[in-house]
Amino acid sequence: MATNDHQLITLIRKGEGIDIEFKTCRNQLNRDVYQTVCAFLNRHGGTILLGVTDSGDIQGIEPDAVSQIKKDFVTTINNPQKIHPPAYMAIDELVVEGKQVLRIYVPESSQVHRCNGHIFDRNEDGDFDITNHTRQVADLYQRKQATYSENKIYPFARMDDLRSDLIDKCRRLAGVWRDDHPWLGMDDPALLKSAQLYQTDPETGRSGLTLAGILLFGNDQLILSAVPHHRTDLILRKVNLDRYDDRDLVRTNLIESYERIIAFVQKHLPDPFFLEGMERMSFRDAIFREVASNILIHREYTNAFPAKLIIERGQVRTENSNKPHGFGVLDPATFTPFSKNPVIGAFFREIHRADELGSGMRKMMRYGKAYGGADPQMIEGDVFRIIIKVPEFESSGKVQAEEQETWQGAQSGHNRNKVTGEVTGEVTGEVTGEVYYLLKVIGKGASTRAEAQAALELKGQANFRERYLGPALEAGLIEMTIPEKPKSSKQKYRLTDTGRQVLIKIHGGAD
Fold first, then answer.
1. pLDDT digits (tens, 9 = 90+) for 325-379
2. 184 and 74: one domain?
């Protein structure tokens, strides 16, 4: 739960507007909350604050009602009978001036949404029903289609052209973060429709896979048929400045593109020791997780300009084609986030490869200066650029081993936070310390989530899933014992052959 937030108080003082709405909700949800959600989805997105009156008075929500309100909202927002197409979004707890407030961030959608069968739009005066206003509805559809190329339908694309293994992988990843995720009970076609990757053109009546669906799950041949210029160029250029020292030309789906970007960064950038609270924190991975998702989510895919990530001495530069909403260096204090591909962005958030719009940028700024000595720069234009300063180590393995010894000394008395130097030196890029601890536990025998979490003495389930279970599953180091039933009460996790080899390499096996 967050503490008093000065920025939030400043936001409340500005009052309601086209992208901010207050709802009292003392002990239950206001009935018109979902109309506002629908209007924000259809316009430019926005923030809904529950526990604040129309005049901006922070009354808060009754503590006993918070849990039920959150549950009711999540259940209803995923109900296609209420909001169609469904929209997946989080609801955060905050404490403002000693009172509990709930915050809902609603991203702009590339779809036209309905609430209880009605289309709502947003202006400065609030939400208004445009269902029977034919011209306004037509304008809304036209604006969405003209702005978001990810929605273009490709009738020639077939389900057989998609990677069913990737769809299943993403279904399982979504289930890691939410035991009750709706995708877990859906077959592939239903999941694609739910994620807005299979749509119907309202003007022509044609149905089919969208560009977003092809980019996420298409086989390489299908992707290059739809977007022949699609590629992400990863370059290391420190010694040979005319060409490159290492290169990976990525021309595949966005799921595996993300993994290859992260692998390239981990291969060529140092991961110095930082301690946040009582846990080791990889600032490198936190920063470049946001960079990787930004390159893939916010790119204009109809533009043939190739995306690039270039590692140079002392800095990393990225470039990708863009539909700008301004020009120049972005100021984090005044920047308003805008999703260029909301469907792709929403999908990445569901599998936990991207943060809520805007929060990833704040995280990158938060860790960037500590990591490289200077604030990252983001430059908006027809080509979107990011410049991040990075440390230079002559012998990263040696330095990291020395840092690990310092870490172990600082962590004396906390046995589960001790990792051999090999983890951050020899095996950098394969496992984090957290994943290593989990492998040790599961290496002793298949464990349920609760058993593994208890063995690691972790109380927070969200933290366990984010730092331990999710990364280990995603890296293929552990697997479910009942993969066909991810939500089974008998579900356990065991080491894969890869996980067993990594554990042996680090520590000679489980102890």
1. 667 887 766 665 566 788 898 899 889 888 766 677 778 888 898 899 899 998 8
2. no
**Percent of the chain surpassing pLDDT 70:** 85
CATH number at residue 56: 3.30.950.30
Statement to judge: residues 137 and 157 lie in one domain:
no
Alpha-carbon distance of 401 to 425, in angstroms, equals 6
| Any domain includes 409 | no
φ/ψ (deg, to 5) at 122? -125, 140
458 lies in the same domain as 330? no
Residues 138 and 162 in one domain: no
The pLDDT of residue 335 is 61
Q: Tokens 């304008």 map to which residue?
A: 139
Residues 6+ apart with CB under 8 A from 259: none
* 369 close to 395: Cβ distance less than 8 angstroms: no
Tokens 């805007």 map to which residue?
358
Task: Round to whole Å and give the CA distance between 74 and 149.
Answer: 29
End position of a domain, from candidates 113, 146, 179: 146
pLDDT mean across residues, the chain: 82
Residue 112: give the domain boundaries: 6-146
| Dihedral angle of Cα 413, 417, 423, 424, to the nearest 10 degrees | -90
Q: Two tokens at 39?
A: 């209007």
What is the distance of C-alpha 475 from the center of its chain? Answer: 17
Of 262, 172, 255, the C-alpha closest to 481 is 172
Task: Indicate if 116 and 261 belong to the same structural domain.
Answer: no
Q: How far is Cα 442 from Cα 440, in angstroms, rounded to an integer?
A: 6
Residue 479 near residue 409, CB atoms below 8 Å: no
CA distance 20 to 16: 5
Looking at the structure of the chain, the number of domains it has is 4
Q: List the Cα angle 378/379/382 in 5-degree steps.
A: 135
As to burial, measured by CB atoms within 10 angstroms (0-12 exposed, 13-18 middle, 19+ buried), residue 67 is exposed
Whether residue 415 lies inside any domain: the answer is no
pLDDT (mean) for 242-254: 92
Spatial CA neighbour of 136 closest among 154, 153, 147, 123: 123
